[in-house]
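the three lines:
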Amino acid sequence: MPSAPLLLSQAFNGLALGTLLALVASGLTIILGTLGVLNFAHGALFMLGAYAMYVVTAQTGSYFLGILVGAVFMLVVGVVLERGLVRLFYGRPHEDQILVTFGAGIVIVEAVRAIFGANTQSVPTPSWGQGIVQLGFLFYPTYRLELIGIVAALLFALYLILYRTSIGLVVRAGIEDARMVGILGINVRRAFLLVFAIGVVAAGVSGMLYAPIVSVEPDMGSSFLVEAFVVIVIGGLGSYPGAVLGGLIAGEIISITSAFNAAYSEVMLYAVMALLLVLRPQGLFGSEGRV
Amino acid sequence: MINRSDAAGLRRRQLLQLGAGAAGGLMLPGLGTALAAEAPLGTWPAGTTGDSVFVGVTSPLTGAYSADGKDHVLGYELAFAEINEGGANAQAWGLKGKGVLGKMIRHGIADSELKANVAVQAQTQFIQRDKAIMITGCVSSATAVALEELAQRDHVLNMVGASGANATTGHDCQRYGFRSQPSAYMACKALAPVVAQHYGRGKKVAYLVPDYNYGHSVFNAFSEFTKPYGWTTAAQVVIPLSASDYSSALLNIANSGADVFVNIEFAAQAVNSTKQAAQFGIFKKMQMIVPNISSFQAQETGAQLMQGVFGTMDWYWTLEDRFPLSKNFVTAFRARNHYIPNWGAHIGYLQTYLWALAVERAGTFYPPAVIKTLEASKANPFNSTLGKVWYRAEDHQLVRPVPVVVAKAPKAMKSKDDYFDIVDMVPGEQAISPPALLGCKLGPYV
Amino acid sequence: MRARFWPEAAMVAVLLLAPLVLPRLGFSYDLLQRILDWGLIGLGFDLLFGATGLLSFGQAAFFGTGGFVAAYLLLHHVLSSVWLALALGTLAAGLFGLAVGWLAVRRIGIYFAMITLAFGQMAYFLENSPLAAYTGGENGLPGVPVPMLGSYKIAAGMPMYWALAVIFLAGFVLARRILHSPFGAVLRAIKGNTARTGMTGHSVPAYKLAVFVIAALYAGLAGGLLGVFQSYMPPEAFSLDTSGQLVVQTVIGGVGTLVGPLLGATIWLWLRDNLQQVPHIGALWKLILGLIFVALVVMLKRGIAGEIRWAFSRRRLASAEAGVPEEAGEAAVMPPEAAALPMQAPLVVARADAPALRAIGLSKFYGGLHAVEGVSFDVRTGSIHAVIGPNGAGKSTLFKMLTDEVSPTSGDVLLFGQRVTGLGPTHTAQLGIGKSNQLNQLFLDLTVTENLRIAALARARGTFRADLWRAADSIAPVERQVAAAMDTVGLTHRADVPVHVLPYGEKRRLEIGIALAIGPNVLLLDEPLAGMSPAERVATRALVREIGRTRTLVVVEHDMDAIFELAERITVLYEGRLLADGTPEEIQRNQAVQDAYLGGLHEHEPA
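prediction for all of em together
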């Protein structure tokens, strides 16, 4: 049995891990909910964001410039991807959508490997994120601690966009009934483009924020993609609050299990997901049959 | 000359003679022709009838470890080019003329994607389609074990590696597999006295163990060899494959009260876990030891974080100061690829040459003859990039010195590539396990 | 019959010619074996995904289970017969499939894909860590022996190719039999319209579970063979990549064609292998393959085999349509004299002494909304009974409660005195209540004959039967029933036309025909005349009257002329409550009905 301080530490770490997972999953769930497209390229876009961060910080040394330029870059990537590829698939079956994004993911990863090589790259922790903070029962890296706040702010901003703007209204209406939105004469195509771009930027920004913590390499996105799937299944496919809560739950499962035996953290995550799907198949906030 | 129809009946006796001949280094080129009367075995003689022979190489070029995989492949390509050219470098190893036994080496390279199944698929294709006479290359122990099995089944020689797990020349060893990299056992046995002397007795150790065969091999070996010095295990944190966020694992380690942190992760994951360990302040409390330091670990992690880290490596480029063949290798590799080779490249380079030398000594590509020659190399060691080396007949592990290194502080580096001091070259005989310990039972020759 | 076996004959030819032709293109025997192995797991997957429409991302779980169980049994000398080990491995995969399927098949769409993905990933991590002592963890199990045939050892290379070719061929023949069996017909119906399949009396979850297990058995056998033919059981068998590659290859090759996965594997493995051998391409092979893949998915909507089949079927369809005379007004739809169907009787026997259908205090509340409240009425055996009421009166909800599509909040429905409430629409159909819907619920990709056959099969075979081997059209009573129902609704001249090309009026009649073909004693028709032209209305009224001669009918309809002409008794609903119940004359005289409903009808009702 792990000690109480360790369990407390892991519970806290689960929160930090969870907020990041929530941000990664939020982009995935918005796109799925509105467009009905399960974006298998999400992990690759996460990685692309991290590389954008790497390139800009290596040139300028500025963290904020990295986020800014990176976000604009991801916006462009999102628009190009939607206009050039995803748009062709709105009327086609789920499996075609899954496959084309899956293919796009491979292309993005391998293009990055061809350009930057397979070696890992480093993005420096910003000066204000250096060091460790003593939190009573645990020491925690300053940047990770700050990241909880940054991610929370971003999630809140996304909440404002989704729940307090007219585009958000269309997005949420689209989640309820895409056909209805079309009938109402709202320009669904433009809304879809916007939603896809927002989802891509969310994926990219997650990668940018994560870049100083992990090694930046072409395959870094794959494990996040699968974990993001788990998160949105737990939370309910297409549900934004579901992604946030699901992220926190997944973070806690991984962290608390690690206190006992880290080797079982992944098994535990999937076991909980499977159990939930059996007991409450639509996820915590979802409604089955819609997606 | 031996009559073809008598070949089968003569095989046993002939092999005995052959073994004796190889051991004595008395093989004559003429005898190779005589052996063409042997019953066909694997890709022999079909793969050797033309003016060239084929070597199949698999290595991860995409996915995890692909940086190491690319380096690995460049080592092979350099060796193939040198041997085919038959220039000064090949002659320095003792090869004669162009190619091997006068035959050019053709090769195919396939991406294993770090999947054993894909590697087996690609090598089987090389064997069946291209009549590969030798297969080689991998950057994972799972792949090594799978390819050894394939080599044994299809009677094609396999120069195994890179692979550090004990099983490669232990429980899963094969008659047709030869490994040049030090096993986890050898690495840890060489490393333990050095770190014990440096850090003192009675240390508490926290381990970060990737949950695969190699990870457990290293954990078992390191904890065993440091036990005599009073070192104890404070935490053994086993983490799933493909982990990318180590925070929860590192919290366990930070809370373990250990003095020493042994990081067994490999390649990108080693870099990743090291960076995150620094963020969690682990290095303020603990010294890191990496029993097997990955090729690009120092470069990617940075000297600032790596300084003071002890570990072992298959080879390091500054060995060029000690061994002329290493000097040749580094010089030629730099000229060709514009960077300094890492040990992944070295394994490809070394194994290709050792195979070529054995074939020339045996005077034939006939696999049992080449195997016997390699098994008999103790009596007549090969001169190599690591000095005198030979394969142990009982388990096909290369008996070779193990470099124990420590990472330099940034200001002590003489050049941008000068990350390590070689603390010790522990002789192979001293580091290697007793022959039967790891459970190797070699299979049949034919 | 000769035409029916040409795919099998073609497959034999392909398997015989492959080792002669393909090596010239750089395929080794090993590569051919791998293609067959992918093709084998693909047969089961295509039955699951292509035929039934269930996209699984977890086939690796069964592939791995079959492989590791077989390999473990052989390597630990529990068994010495490779064949027996393969059989047990396959069985183990089937059992695992049964467990996962039990939990998964009630989920639909992406949820189904995700739950299978979750179990697949869980199996992968279980293999790697907790079960490493048995599976070798990430090393897998090397040294799997090859099988013997008597005293002949089936060695790697050509002998192993022939062994795999024979096994694949057996799997292919079986899969084709399954696809063209009554069981397979139901699978295709589930893909076409899951709800209607259940409403005709087939137990949809049972069929889904059965096909899930069949797919798992195929995967298990393929997994076992993987270990055998390469002497090594790799842990990647369990990985998500394996499931993903299967989906990729199936989609490239063509979904629902059975040969699609084989074709996809051939192309994928060949490209993968050969791209790498192009000089200086190195790691770029994957980028190029990725681009090719995206282009294929964008351009080919049906996969390669699917596009070819589509091109053929389009030509056939065009010629079929050219040969059929256009519907010639009323004449074509005049009902024949005898509408009595030859089928066996439903489970509940019609009795003249009890009301055919009896609603007792039926209520349905949605939260605070009282859609139907306390409605009771009797439907006399052999009568045509109408339910009318303005829009929103609760007619459709009431109808759905009669077949138990919607569970009543309170109250009961009795069929010839037997309670049917709570049984669900599948069982009420089996008991003898048929229903045609307000909105057509057809199997659009199937022909008229096949549509009716789905319904007739439910009566003949009950809620579930795994008759995998016989042909779907080989059950004589079913075929007579189909012919009779088709004749009754006047669609015989359209027998082999896919339903999606039918004009609306014919679709509407087919909707009734399906309800009729289940052989019900009581038939519920929900607005049978909705959306029809005046000429079609006349014909359909005649049809309803004709059907009413042999069975009890309950009709919801807005067309008052039709109702008062056809119905012997009329129940009037108003705002969810029963307003009146009586003969047409009584209803016409009823002041409350006139005030509340009929008075307003002519002003507001478009019908």
